[in-house]
Amino acid sequence: MHWYRELVDTGRAQAAWALFAFLLTFTVARAITRRIRAKQASAQPDDGGLSDVHIGGIHIHHQVWGILLVLLSGLLQFRYAPASPWAEVLAVMFGAGAALTLDEFALWLHLDDVYWGPEGRKSIDAILLGGALGVVLLMQTSPIGAEPERAGGELARWTYFATVGVHLVMAILCFLKGKLATGLIGIVVPFVAFAGALRLAKPGSTWAVRRYGERKEGRARKRFGPTYDKRWNRIRDALGGHPSRRT
Predict the structure, then answer these.
(1) Domain extent for 128
(2) Which end of the chain has less neighbouring CB within 10 Å, N or C?
(3) How many Cβ atoms sit within 10 Å of the Cβ of residue 174?
(4) Where are the transmembrane segments (predicted)?
(5) Would you say 107 and 61 are in contact if contact means Cβ atoms under 8 Å apart?
């Protein structure tokens, strides 16, 4: 297949397999957890089908398997650096492990079982960010482009370094403005960093606290207010399931 041969020739085949495994694993994991949740909510008897995994009376979250897969694939890659097809196998292991781990990002962030709580939406944010970075890395050969040839002369080299410097400054501005996802993606895609750096900061961010007056702070709160949260929560809930508040 020509398109796959192009991925191999440009060194992106492993990224493609990792992204495929990441998306597939997340989809399957969420389908299973939502099925288990529905079963528990309806008080159906345990018929030996899908259920939480317990070892020695301890609920083993699927992030445990994800962490093991990420560690194992990383160790094997660092030690043996295998060629194809084993390199792709390790990429699949890493992608699957990353999905299982990030799907429970909120749990290891809060150190509490908040998977189905409102805080659990942070896991969906982590999955969206991981998937977006995977797509961007699949499209790009290098985060900051290739260094110009020496034949380009000193002017070309200094222009290159200046462009990279401005690009990274824009990404840092995104972080200061409270836009973590935009900043991370912007490291790889320059125009994303520029757009995020030029737009309003999120209220409460370092940039907003230090540089915004009352009027601009009000604009930021309106821009990132309840309507903004509601819109994004609809997307999060469609992907991960509607949260339930603890009683």
Answers:
(1) 1-141
(2) C
(3) 28
(4) 15-32, 89-111, 123-146, 158-176, 183-201
(5) yes
